[in-house]
Every structure is written in C-alpha cells, then in structure tokens.
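Case study 2.
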Amino acid sequence: MTAKPTTDSQCLITVNGAVREFTGPTHTNALDFLRGEGLTSCKEGCAEGECGACSILVARADGEATRWTALNACLLPAAALDGQEVITAEGLGDRTRLHPVQQQMVEHGGSQCGYCTPGFVCSMAAEYYRPERATAAGAPPNEEDAADQHCGPNGFDLHALSGNLCRCTGYRPIRDAAFALGTPAVDDALAARRDQLAPAVVHTDLSRADTPTGQLGRYRRPGTLEEALQILFEEPGVLPLAGGTDWGVEVNIKGARARSLLAIDRLSELRQLDVTDTHIEIGAACTLSELERGLHGRIPLLGKLFGQFASRLIRNSATIGGNLGTGSPIGDTAPALLALDAELVLGSVTGQRVVPLADYFTGYRQTARQPGELITVIRVPLPLSGLTSFQKISKRRFDDISSVAIGYALAVQNGIITKARIGLGGVAATPLRATATEAMLEGRAWDLETIRAAAQVMGEEGTPMDDHRASAEYRKAMLESSFERFFAAQLQVAHSLKGEGK
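Prediction:
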C-alpha cells in the first residue's frame, strides 16, 4: 500500500497503457467509466456479473509477479482501479496485428453477432496468460475433466469461460479457438509484464457530488486494517466493500447508493493464508480464486466447492469474508464451512472475538457481527474429517444460484461414524447445521441402512419454502436423496482406490 503523489481528489487509472483520470460519481462502475472513455468493447448485458460481456483484464499481484485477472467491469467500482493497470479488448490487438486469442476466434468462427465476443476474448486472454497453463498442457485429464471436457490438450481450462454467455454462435467454435491457443511469443509484452511487480495498491480518498441534491459520495481505501477499523468505529454508516459482487448488483439493478464506501479488499492483514498445528486460517479478503490456488487441495471440501461457486469471473473478485458477511441463506461457502466447524474472527477497535460460524447467522441476512466489526479471519480446525462432499442443486450446473446446497464432513473409524457435521443452505432463513441428522449418525455404522435412516431425518431439517427457484417439497426431496448420493460417491471412491491398490 503506497501513497499517491497526486491529490486525494484525483483517481488515475492506466488503461491500455495510457493514464486516464476518473472524475465521475463514486458509484460509477468500471464498465460505464470505460465506455465513457470511448472504449466500447465493454458491453452491458446483464449488469449482474452473469454474462461476461463486460470482461476486462486487471493486473493483480501474484506473489512477486503479476497475474492478468479477468473481472466483471459492471460490478467493479471505477474508483477501485485507482493506480491500477487495465487492458480491454482494444488493448489486446489492433486491425494490423490481432492478438493470438482474437486470431483464433477469427479462424474458428467464434463470433457471430459479436456482442459477447470482446468479453470472451478478455476471459480467454486471462487463461492464455495463466502461468499454470503451460505445465498443464499435455497432461492427462482427470476423470471429471475427461467426462466434461473442461481442460484442453493445451492446458486451457474451460472454467475460465464459465462466466461468459453466447446466444448465437454456440460454444463449440469458441472452445475450438481456446484449445487451439499456443504459448505466448517471446516478444509478447503482456506475457513479459507478468514477471514484474503488480501496481501498488494506493491509499485512496475520493469525494464526489453524485446525487441531484448534491450529497457527497465518498470512496476510501485505507492503508491498514487499524485505519479501517477506526473509520468503522467513528462512522457507523460507512459500508465496507470487498469484491463488490453483491453490492455491484444492488447498485446496477436496484439503484442503491452509499454515502460512504470503505474498500477493504486489498488490505494485507485480511489476505493471509496460514496453517498452524490446530487451524487453517484464511484471510477474509482472499478471493475464491486465490484460495483455490493457495490451498492446493489442503481442504478437500472447499476444493469441491470452488468449481461450483458462480463463475471464474466472479471467483476472481468475490471474497470468502464477503460471501459470509452478506448473511445470505443461499451463499455457497456457508454450508461447506459449517460442515468444517469453522469459526470467524471478528475485529474492531476494541480487539478481537471468535464466533463459531454455527452461531453467526441470527436471522434472514442478519448476523452476530456488531457495528464497527469486520470479519478478519476464517478458522478451520484441524484435523479434517476424512469423508467430505459438497452438493449444489441448481438449474444450471455452473454459474447459478443454489436452490439447495449441502456440505458433508464425516469421520469414520472401523466402520463407525465418530463425527458428523452437515451444513445446509437454501432450506431456511439462514444457513444452518443439520444437528438432528448429525446426532442420529454419530455412533452408527457407516452403511446403507444408516444412510437411509438418516435421509428421513435429513428431510425434516430446516424450514424450506416455495419460491421461484424450487418448491418446499422439492427441497425436502433433495435433502433426503443427497445422503444416498454422498454414500454412493464414497463407495465409488473406495472401490477406485482399492482397484489402484491404495
């Protein structure tokens, strides 16, 4: 975090190599700012982060290097890019020299009406420059990849495009273009940029007249967690903002406005990932994509969750603390973390306190967090249970909201269930533990008879309701059937390991 050499009222963003000043209201998103600058490759399709037409590339820190990260410009406040580097589709190539991604899209017929194409190109470019892709090229796909064709022979992970929608070309030519990409050339400037430090995160304080009545909107990026907590203590009305994937929808769709925003997403104190003898501690401002890379499968249950959480574009921005902080009954991380017996560390100017996640949700979008407090750390106790699963029931397999979400974590010794934790989402006003089912399971044999009995108890957990995503009856049926799916999957894994002699 460094101080700007400019005045506090100035917001400077490097776009396609040129420095531009953002002077608009603080609620302005990056999409509107870029289009106002004449960079109209960014398109507004959904304004909710679901279509990817507004995808852009942002230079984000990756240790001592830089990672080109695809983000939804429609959800990202323009002020959040103060001091940062952005690439739009216009900055990737031009009419005389197309970027390799653009060239492959042309050669494989990956564009028809063209509305979604720039967003696809930016998301594809982020994957093109992903450092791990080179090592994945030529590697045999795992069974899941082989079944769903997620990963190409060149290491291209199609999940990189899970947040981009196309309604006319169809996806086969786009996939073909993605799988035809080689490695960046030696003179590729954006590839070379990865080996340098990312732009420093600057201390920002912007005030703008953004309403007809002239009220001021304020956007601040504090330099330290201590400074952020002091602001929250002194100004109870300030809104903490991390990835903005929830708040951005409120701004775009509901016209929400905040008098004062406090950006906490890049605070180093909230972005640590530590492993102790007793816990794995996750900084609340870590994005889901960063966690996926940083954990390296260390928490298998979260590993099963990541690929089903929205899309890569959303996971590149959404933070684990933000997903819990909204208090949503259908947030995907809560069921998994409930099954992991997670605890939250809440910080304020008076110190820290630890709250079990099972006690954190107090009502519909209400939590135990008090004014002036922030979620700073999510603690997952060790050792982890051996049998885990995350099941998400939704209308689409990817990039969708849960109708029901279930996290399982069971410990079994000598065929007996010694510990059972089950987290549920979408079946009550809050995420909750299936405590009745847990109690019924512990001490019982890990067999089909127990599972079928537990399924009946599970069907009575929560207070499911009818809404546009699913009926209460359907949700109950999903709870009951989920146990047999979990049991069958574990048997399949055990059989596979036995066949491999493990």
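The chain has 19 helices and 20 strands.
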